[in-house]
Amino acid sequence: MGKRRFDWNYVLVLWAAMVVLAFLWRHAPWIAALLMVLAIGAGIASMRERHRRRMQGFWIEYVSPNVLRADEHDFAIVYHEGEESLFFYGKERSRPERDRLLIPSAAAWDAVVPQWARGRRELITQRLVADRIVQRCDIIEKMV
């Protein structure tokens, strides 16, 4: 595995949560205790899900428009397999329409993806379609 980058966002969120919990502990300790139990449960569930995905050998990540900061695409879906990753860009649409996720067509796949993903389009797209994040999207094949 590659070296993990330290993310200050976690520190800021943890600090803000501690301030809120300290305030609640003074004025309503039972609410603070309930929030702590819920936060611990959510953290454990998140860690178990991340571990399960990594044990499968692949995982799929959603990159929001705020993080992506792209002009023509609103979000990205990143397919991770071991140390490798493959980006697919998508366009958000107003509700009730479904978002659109762009993937290279079968004819263009081998020309535009990295070496490790060549010849594996069917497997990767099956894994993408099975993911609950991608199930909210229409898959649009693009000619590159």
Task: Describe it.
This protein has 2 domains: 8-54; 58-142, no CATH class. Helix content is 46%, strand content 23%. It has 5 helices and 5 strands, in the order H-H-E-H-E-E-E-H-H-E. Helix 1 (8-27) runs antiparallel to helix 2 (29-56). The protein starts with 7 loop residues before the first helix and ends with a strand. It has a 5-stranded mixed β-sheet with strand order 1-2-3-4-5.
Task: Summarize this structure briefly.
This protein has five helices and five strands, in the order H-H-E-H-E-E-E-H-H-E.
Give the arrangement of secondary structure elements.
Blueprint: H1 8-27, H2 29-56, E1 58-63, H3 65-68, E2 75-81, E3 84-91, E4 99-104, H4 109-112, H5 121-130, E5 137-142
Parallel strand pairs: 4-5
Antiparallel strand pairs: 1-2, 2-3, 3-4
Helix pairs in contact: 1-2
What labels describe this entry?
144 residues, 46% helix, 23% strand, elongated
Q: Roughly what fraction of the amino acids lie in strands?
A: 15-25%
Distance between the termini: 32 Å
Number of domains: 2
Helix content: 40-55%
On the 0-100 scale, what is the average pLDDT? 84
